[in-house]
Every structure is written in structure tokens, then in C-alpha cells.
Specification:
The complex is a heterodimer of chains A (490) and B (343). By secondary structure, chain A is an alpha+beta fold. In chain A, 38% of the residues lie in helices and 24% in strands. In chain A, strands 5, 6, 12, 13, 14, 15, 16, 17 and 20 form a nine-stranded mixed β-sheet that branches. In chain A, strands 1, 2, 8, 9, 10, 11, 18 and 19 form an eight-stranded mixed β-sheet that branches. The N terminus of chain A is likely disordered. Chain B has one domain: Vaccinia Virus protein VP39 (Rossmann fold, 3-Layer(aba) Sandwich), CATH 3.40.50. Chain B contains eleven helices and eight strands. Chain B has an eight-stranded mixed β-sheet, sandwiched between helices. In chain B, helix 3 crosses helix 6. Chain B is globular. The N terminus of chain B is likely disordered. The chains are: A alpha+beta (490), B alpha/beta (343). The interface between A and B is medium-sized, with 31 and 26 residues.
Amino acid sequence: MEAVARRKAAAYVCLSCTRQFQRHIRRQYHNAAPRPDIYDVVCVGGGPAGLSLLTALRANPVTSHLRVALVEAQDLSKVKSWKLPPSKYSNRCSSLTPTSAFYLDQIGAWEHLDQTRVQPYHEMQVWDGVTDARIEFDWAPGSALVEGTTIAYMNENLNLTSGLLKRLEQLGGVSVFEGAKVENITFGEETEDLDLRQWPVVHISGGKQLTARLLVGADGANSPVRAFAGIDAKGWDYNRHGVVATLEMEGEGWGGEHTKIAYQRFLPTGPVAMLPMPGKYSTLVWSTTPENASILKSLSPKDFVAMVNAAFRLSPVDLAFMHTQGANQDYEYSWRLQHTSFNPRAIPQTVVGVQEGTIASFPLKMRHADTYIGERVALVGDAAHTIHPLAGQGLNQGQGDVQSLAKTIEHAVTHGQDIGSIMSLESYVSERYTANHVLLGVVDKLHKLYSAESGPLVPLRSLGLNAVNALGPLKSFFMKQAAGSGTKLF
Amino acid sequence: MLPPSPLRQLAPTIARRVRNPRTIARLASTPQCFAPVTESPSVRTQRWHSNHNDSRPPSSSSVNPDEISHFNALAATWWDPHGSSRALHLMNPLRHDFIQTCRSSSPTSSFTVLTEDSGDELPSSSPDAPTYSTTANVQKLRYLDIGCGGGIFAESAARLPTTESVLAIDPSPGVLAIARSHAKKDPSLSPKLTYLSSTIESLPTLKPEAVEKKFDVVSCFEVIEHVDHPALFLDHVAKFVKPGGWLVMSTIARTWTSWFTTNFMAEDVLGIVPKGTHDWNKYINEYELRGYFEETEEKRRFWGQPRAMGVVYVPGLGWKEVPGSEKVGNYFLGVQRLASEDA
């Protein structure tokens, strides 16, 4: 038994740690106390942020000797073997900036994504639903400011997590505890020659206990790790829900297969966005009131499609009225459409269908943790911040966190610092907190600005949008910020 | 189980502290002060205590008792990331960067590796010889950290995968108690890190031929400015450096700028360094310290060309390397031992 344990330990740990273990085993043999199972990094949460962090640590030769564990409530083998036919798309998609994609490529994960399901887009059309002021984000041909043609990549979250899992499997060396719930997090104990009273101990279902030099909370908006660390998250609920669905369009888009366009219209109830997926498919993110969301979810597919088409074409007044009808939006839409003028090439093509079972909604909120670190604790992704989806930045912020934390850990390892100490983790917070805070604030203000139906803000915001549209360099600057390729402003 | 570290054999030594008059034999003011250091320490310094069963040559301590009590008082906040030693914590990564720069500047830094690989340099009589037989140990470094304080550098050196062992010594018992109790908080340290309440003078002198017991890196960070007789101190330290190994130091130049920043601003005005930590009169300029290693032909044969790196503390950003600032304020100095014979 001891020999087995030793061999197991040797598979993961450097020589000195192995010796340490052996010593533990020997001592524990006499004391008959349970031997703490010590990991350098215990990551709670196997979403995009957690998996990217572990991949980054395993892929880097400087940090690959660290003993790492993943605790995830879901069955990850299902995620890894996730597969859908080319005619079906998951309703949970994210926009990945070129910066995020580049990082995923650096850690060797990008090639494990199913590339036939990743859709780059090259233009953005954003307009005000009340005034129709418009800004067109496209890369002016020949412009000196053009750095790439792709603004971002639309991708199903499952394609990303599945790809990351495949990459992790290739790298090996992660102790994976899947289908394991975190039941409790406590502190370690003090023995004669070891003082683990500041080390988090993660108790998972089945009775196993993992002692962590650094406990990473990648465990989402209601992060148990954050609660354990006593870190508060402040913010507010928008009283809005994001309605998502996978839509089938009449064609591949006005730009064809090679120039895909993302659309977003600001309605008083919230922005509605249509983002291109491969082929004739698009994904919808419509933020609206919880009441409207439940109405939309209750509609027949035919009426739901009519409402989505209406959301990009009809006036906010018409749209509000259509929400009061129990059914027959389809008929109402075709009637009202005849009396509405618009440029069909400036809005998405007509939606012809919605994929069964893809209409869902989730509440929108803004949260920001007071800090991302504690003694032997670091938070990444949604555990640290939750953002309004209107700018498509949530997942990218998480990737930015991961890149920074992995760099921080690498620096700590090369300089002999304890990777769990506040001193080592400080640079992670200082690098990410302000950046995230500014983005959270900008997106929050945008949401509020466009929620106004009338009043002094409405003409002003149109003026702003039109002005930005007229000023090429400024627009280019915004696009680069959106694509994450611009000068690091934040 | 690790074989008993050769360092541990030093453990029973009890620190002997000698109350030296603070004023004599200051190296600081002129480089010429380095000249007489070839004399036996006992000639130049008064001995107040001696170890009763000591058969070794008499030795003194470079350490001032006032300094010891000052650092004892600081012990409690040593590891508080926002406490009195924050500036030291922030400086620590630069120490490793500097050592890295020094070691990579000279191919002979790997001296020990080459000889141990060939296997013919090890005295066959050495009881420790078998411990070097595993290839895993061959390239790892032995550190001696003099004036380790709460162990900020010693712990970090022990954590490096390239480290075989760290012997960390300090004469302040209160500070060392903090260091020991803090080291308990990291299970990876105990196999590599040994603390010893000792001055360098009271460490048993290693026989010149006991090369493998000497150290690849001997560090004294922020120490020389607290030492009463820096030249004697360095003479002593030299014996512990392995041929091909490096002696790395950091201290503060004695300039108006350093008085203003480290004494006036840091201690009196901003309070980021505890009052009484620095005695400006004991600061040593870079040319003075460099002078010690370059002064005589003998020294130049013994030591390589010293390397310096000036660093500046920028509030809110931490320490930054600023070329040329070694003449002004905080700086690192590293020097490689060339000679295989002890001076």
C-alpha cells in the first residue's frame, strides 16, 4: 500500500516532494493520523476559466512540475465527448477575442476545438433602436490601422471546454475529481513539524480531502471558494434576462460565407444581438425584462421567430405591443412590417427557424468581487466578476484573468516564492482588477444609457454614435479594443 | 529519507556574540580600510567571550548587539505582507534575478557540476561522497544565507527546484524563531532548509579541501550595512564560497540621496521602514565594496570581476533595476570565487 502510494506520488511530484511524502507516510504510520493530501493548486470549477488555467500550468515547463487537481461537479467525460451534427448548435455561445484565441493557441488548446464550429466575424453593426443612429464597425480596406480582419470568433462554450479537456488529457498530470461536489472548505491543522492552519482543505463528496497551497475559485458567480475566503462581491441585478436561442437564417448572411457580420440593436428593454455561427446559423442574445423573457419562452417557434425578426426591424412601440399578445405574433409581424421602412442590407437576414430546445434565459447581473485574492486563494472568471453580455466580454475577461494568474504563478515559481502567498498573488490583482473594473463600468453605463426611451440622453447618445461612426480613427480604436488587439488601455 | 545534510553537522554550534566597540575598524569611509584585513581577526578585535570547549581559532562576531535587539523587535511583523518588511519582500525576486544574471555570466559557475560529473574531484574519504552519486543531485546548488532574518530569501531559495540545500544563519534568536515557525507553514521547505542561530564567524571553518561542503551561492542581503567590520566579515565569508561559486550581496550606498530616501523618507516621513533600521554611517558605497575585491593582486586572483546592479524603490510599483543607481542608493554586488585555495 505504501509502495503504491509512493509510486503514485512520484508520478506527479518532484523528487524532494516525493521524499516529503515518504516522510509523511512514515510518520503517519506511527501517529495513525490521516496524511494530508497536498496539492500545489486545487482548482474548483471545470469551466472555461478553470480548464484554461490548468492547461496553462501544465503546458508551461516552468509550472508543469506543480501538483494540480481539478474539482468539478459535472461529469467531464460527457463534456469531452461532446458532439453535435453540423446542423445543430448549442445555445450557449461566446465571442472569443483574437487575444483570447491567441492565448488558447499558445497553451495548445485552440487546435483541439472543432474548427468547423468556430465562426470568425469581420463586421459589427450596432444601432439605436429609438433613433436609428448607427455605427458600422468594419475594417476599412487599405486602412493603416487594420491589424487583422477578424473582430472576434463565435464559438460554443462546449466546444471550448471540450477542446480544453482534450488538451489537458494530452498533457496529463492533473488529478481530476469529476462529479464531485465541494461539501466544505476548512483549514488544515498544526502538527509537530507542520503548520497547515492557513492551508485550505477542500472536502469533496465521497469524503476525500484535498489540501491546497493555492486554492483557485473558478467556480462561477456563486463561488463557494469566494465565500470561504470571505470576499464580498458587490453589484446589482439588472432586472433583465438574457434570452438565448439558436436560429436558422434565410442565408449565410449579407457578406456571404467569408464576411460574417454581428448585429446588435439597443432597445429600451435592453440590447438584442444576433451573432453569426457557421453556415446559415446564428445565435441570439436578447436581454429584456423577466416578464418579456417568459413571454418569449412561452411562444410557439413560429411566433418566437416573428418576435426575433421584429426585434431587429420594428419600432420599440410596435415591439412592446406585440409582447402583450398571447399568440399570433407571426401574423402581427407580417402586417406591421409592411408599414415599417428599413434598409434590409443593414440588418440581419430574416430568421426562418429556431432550433428545438434552444430557447432559454438567464438573469443578468453585474458583480465584482472586492478582491481576487486571499491567503492561499485566487479567484478567476465569473467567481471574480459577472458582466452584462452586451459587449461579449465575459469569457474573455476570464481568459485575461487566467493568462495573468498563470504568469503570476510562473514568476513565483522561478523566484522561489510560495505561489499561495498574498505577496506572490498581488501582481495578479494589480494587473487585472482595474482592467476588469473599467470594462464592467463601461458596459454597465452602456446598458443604462440605452435603457432610456426618451429624455435628454436619447439625442445625445445618437449624436455620440453618429459622431463615432463618422470618425474613422476613433472607430478603429473602439474596434481594436473590442477585438482585444488595441493598445492596452485598461 | 534524505541523507543527513553536511550542514546539519554544524548545528550544535552556539552563537557567540562579541560586543565589539562600534567605532573601530570601519571599512566604510575609505577603500584603504580594507588593507589590513589579512591580519588575524583576533589581533584586531577584542574578544569578550569565548566558547569554553572551542579548539578552533578564536573568532569574533561582526554583528552589533544593538542591531540584534532592533531586529528582534521587528520579528513579529516580518512575514506580514503589509508589515514593516514589505520592502524586503518586494525586493526578494530581484535577488534571484541578480543571482541568475551572475551565474549565467560565467560558464565556470557550473564548476561543481563538471567536477562532480567526472567524479574525480570528490575526496574518496569524504563520508558525504555517496550523497553526490545520484544524478538528480548533481546540478543542484547549495546556498548559505548569512543574516537570513525571518527567512524571506532563505525560504525562496529552498523552494527553487534547482536548490539542493539552504543553510540560513542569523544571530538574532527572536528573528530566527519567527523564521523557523514560518518555515513550518510550507511542507516543501523542511527537506532543504536549515536554520542556525549563528554568526558567520562562529560557523566551523570548512577545510580548504572540503570543496563539496562549501556553497555555490553565499548571500548576505542587506547585511553589510549592519556589520561593524565589513572587511573582516568578508574575509570570513570567502572561506565558505565554493571555487566557481558566487558571493552575492546587497546594501545601500552612502550618499545624500540614500540618506534622504532610506533614513529621512522611508523611516521618518513615510514610515515604510521601521525607525532605527538603518545607520547611514554604516552604509557602504559601491566603489568601496568593489574595492575590497579588487584591491590587492591576491584578491584579484581570488575573486573575479565584481558585478553590480542598482535598484530603486518606486512607491506603488516596487523595486526596479536602474542602471547607474548603484552609485546612489540600493545596489547588488556579486563576485565569483576563482581561486580553489583559501586565502
